[in-house]
């Protein structure tokens, strides 16, 4: 009896291994995700046209924090956000108030997350499946809430490439965080991490970011970053496009 079962067991194991291989497609080298935080007006006026020129995808994380409701010189309108969506870019959730999730009560966080979902629905934008932690703060409660609301990805901080095989996608690390002092060489080093199944997730705020100069990226510097991605033959995508590289849920 045991001998007769051996071939069947071997066949089952082979099928399981093949299924696992299909479930987790290995990310190609030089795969880069571009993300932009805080609803800055330059996302619509400068960043998006440049990305379209290069054929790049990206995720724009939307918040109504700061002075979003009253300052339409430095922050996007919902019409501009809708236009980004119509242009094929991903609209992600950065919460209504941009408050640190670790300091919020569960009901406060739930309300802030739901608000951006409702605003997307009101403007004909698909419900977000990608999230960005304000100030890069994370919490177990936030991860639980996001998972329960159907989010697939949530970007945090850090300085390393994302490995779908080992990293939690709801506390995804970033490989690069654009700041005034950031250099092209640092950006190149971050891009170089996109190999062996790992993905380089890049964070930017405004290009420029007049209201928050500590996270400003100079437009000329940003253009040099994008030219490097193009010259390296990088595949540049939105965060939602990473879904096929995640292991199947058990």
Which key features would you list for this structure?
alpha/beta
Could you explain the architecture of this structure?
The protein contains 7 helices and 8 strands; from the N terminus they run H-E-H-E-H-E-H-E-H-E-E-H-E-H-E. The protein is α/β, with parallel strands linked by helices. It has a single domain, classed as Alpha-Beta Barrel (TIM Barrel). The strands form 2 sheets. Strands 1, 2, 3, 6, 7 and 8 form a 6-stranded parallel beta sheet that branches. It has a two-stranded parallel ribbon with strand order 4-5. Helix 5 (about 140-150) links the parallel strand 4 (about 130) and strand 5. The chain is globular. The two termini are about 30 Å apart. Residues about 15-25 have low confidence and may be disordered.
Give me a quick take on this structure:
It contains seven helices and eight strands. It is an alpha/beta fold. The strands form two sheets. Strands 1, 2, 3, 6, 7 and 8 form a six-stranded parallel β-sheet that branches. A two-stranded parallel ribbon has the order 4-5.
